[in-house]
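User: I'm writing a short methods note and want a consistent example. For AB hydrolase-1 domain-containing protein, I'll paste the sequence; you return only the structure tokens, no commentary, since I'll be parsing the reply automatically.
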Amino acid sequence: MATYVLVPGAWLGAWAWEDTARALRERGHTALPLTLTGLAELTDRGGPRTDLDTHIADITGFVERNDLRDVTLVAHSYAAAPVTGAAGRLGDRLERVVYVDSAPFAAGMCMLDLMPPQAADQLRQQVSASGDGWRLPMPSFEFLGLSSSLDGLDEDQRAVLRARATPQPFGTYTQRLAGPVEPGSGVDRVLVACHDFTGLLDAGVPMLAFVNQPPWRRFDLLTGHWPMLSAPAELAGVLDTAVS
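Assistant:
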């Protein structure tokens, strides 16, 4: 049986993984959702200095404090950035890294690099206007839908996502990832691709070519960008298969 550390994407907390974690536990696994500093129940711990290094330290500290071994570290969306950093620091505690509708970051990258300049500027303006200069409120679904599939999220699920989302410390988007970023050579590497991401991979986008070949293993999931909300049991099934 596997030990999963489940790291949520932007604006989310451990709550987003509850249904998937439950399904993994029913299969006999240990599933440990993690809330990062400044988000959800840890909102009051965030501040202008909360950045990508903070979230990397959250992940590595959680694994080390709990003396976890043979860890399967799972990243959703934004969490690809801190999980990449943590994977390069966890050494032999890490057995597997899984990127859900995301991919590992290269050293020197930041979240804003993944979007067009106009979209990045729009986020900066939002932070300045309604985030006290350091917090990024969750944008509208219309804005999110420009780059991330909303497939599978019904009106009730969108309402829950909107109600429970908390502003993202913007330093986590602007700080560039520093090394080490490579996990050990024996670490299993897994990609779970949802709707829009499967199209990018199948189109052979050059910057993603490496995750379409060994040692990477790819699983496709027919839902949108938030599978832990739109298809939690199916996601748990894929995560279970990945460790079997």
